[in-house]
Write a structure and sequence with these properties.
This protein is mostly helical and 391 residues long. It has a domain of 221 residues. The chain has 19 helices and no strands. Helix 13 runs antiparallel to helix 15. The longest helix has 29 residues. Keywords: Membrane, Transmembrane, Transmembrane helix.
Length: 391
């Protein structure tokens, strides 16, 4: 429990460390399960989870990802990416089956404490120009705090659900947490976090008062994201005017449009099967890249398309994209069955994470999978605590 609760603080110190904490927590849980003599019930629960509709869809996505490594031009890169993504996912599965029923109110208070300390550390570091990091000779670029800020953004939702459902004057404390998070997000250099926070602030109240409408819009947005992503480059090139580019220059909008166009050309080369899981960091060196128009080859050196849906199309093709949509829809179906308060927070979590993934980091980065997974575990625990609650 402690390992999972200190993720915010750990990320504020080492900005890719969330996989370490979820894997460590999962190992502790497995050891405890063995010591308690509950390994057989755990294995039954695991089998049940993996043979559920969502479990089978996730296994299909894993199987297709693994199979795609067979036609990857850089198989070692593909295998490394598979490990980076699926190790934290496996750890989160273990935690989901063992830990939520044990997470206590005290652990939520510990998470709240590490959340606040992490935010203070981030703002202090940025305010001082990362002088401490410079003094000890470690990486001191301001953007390294984008990952811990996004982790705070995701963890804020289960914390809010718990505050609203279990703490006296929870509305006040929830708003205070939101204001604190807003200060951290605005102080950071993460435009993706600003976008995610804005959408979360719109989605949560909308899900509270119009749950069916919000659910439908979320499902539609997921579908459209995957349908449009192969053409997102040409579309945004037409829609975003030079004047608009000037206003949002800090978001590197021109570079993103060029990047999306370049990887869109890659999709056209292998639209069904894709180029192989995790190949994006070496895309510029592939034979596929040589078929892309010369003026668009330069941006293939960036490392990934900064759009998770487009990256899935690039690496896993239409088949991978279809499986990913199925996973998303089955996840939404499970969210709909949650108690009202936790359902609102979960829909806000999905709505906030989606745009971040569509404009930000690589799809398979382990820190993102671990941070999202940790938020899901805390959300499960918040759901367990929830009773009939009204604002």
């Amino acid at each position: 429990m402690v390992s999972l609760a200190i993720i915010p603080l750990g990320m504020s110190i080492a900005h890719r460390s969330s996989p370490l904490y979820v894997v460590l927590s999962a190992v502790f849980c497995l050891v405890a399960t063995c010591v308690e003599g509950r390994i057989r019930p755990f294995l039954r629960d695991l089998a049940g989870a993996l043979t559920s509709p969502l479990g089978l869809a996730v296994l299909a996505f894993f199987g297709w990802s693994l199979a795609s490594a067979g036609w990857s031009e850089f198989k070692s890169v593909s295998l490394f990416s598979l490990g980076e993504l699926w190790l934290p996912i496996a750890a989160i599965l273990v935690l989901a089956l063992t830990l939520p029923k044990h997470l206590t109110q005290q652990m939520f208070w510990l998470l709240t404490g590490t959340f606040l300390v992490a935010g203070i550390v981030i703002m202090a570091e940025l305010a001082t120009g990362l002088i401490l990091r410079r003094a000890i000779g470690v990486r001191s670029d301001p953007f390294i705090f984008n990952r811990p800020v996004l982790t705070l953004l995701m963890l804020a939702l289960p914390l809010t659900a718990w505050l609203l459902g279990n703490v006296r004057r929870g509305v006040i404390w929830g708003l205070a947490l939101l204001l604190f998070l807003s200060a951290v997000v605005i102080r950071s250099e993460s435009d993706a976090a600003v976008l995610g926070l804005a959408i979360i602030c719109l989605t949560f109240p909308m899900a509270w008062f119009l749950p069916r409408v919000t659910f439908g819009l979320t499902a539609f947005a997921v579908l459209m994201a995957f349908c449009v992503s192969p053409l997102i480059g040409p579309i945004t090139a037409q829609l975003i005017t030079p004047a608009m580019h000037e206003k949002i220059a800090s978001s590197h909008s021109r570079e993103r449009v060029e990047l999306w166009q370049s990887f869109g050309f890659v999709v056209r080369q292998k639209p069904i099967l894709g180029s192989g899981f995790g190949i994006s960091p070496r895309m510029a060196e592939t034979t596929i890249a040589q078929k892309v128009p010369v003026e668009h080859q330069r941006m293939l050196n960036i490392g990934h398309p900064h759009n998770a849906a487009l990256q899935i199309w690039v690496e896993l093709g239409a088949i991978g994209a279809a499986i990913a949509v199925l996973v998303a829809f089955l996840t939404l179906r499970m969210v709909w069955q949650l108690p009202h308060l936790t359902r609102c927070a979960s829909m806000a979590l999905i709505a906030g994470a989606g745009p971040v993934a569509l404009v930000g980091h690589g799809a398979w980065q382990g820190w993102w999978a671990a941070s999202l997974g940790a938020a899901i575990i805390w959300m499960q625990a918040a759901s367990r605590f929830q009773t009939e609650t009204k604002l």
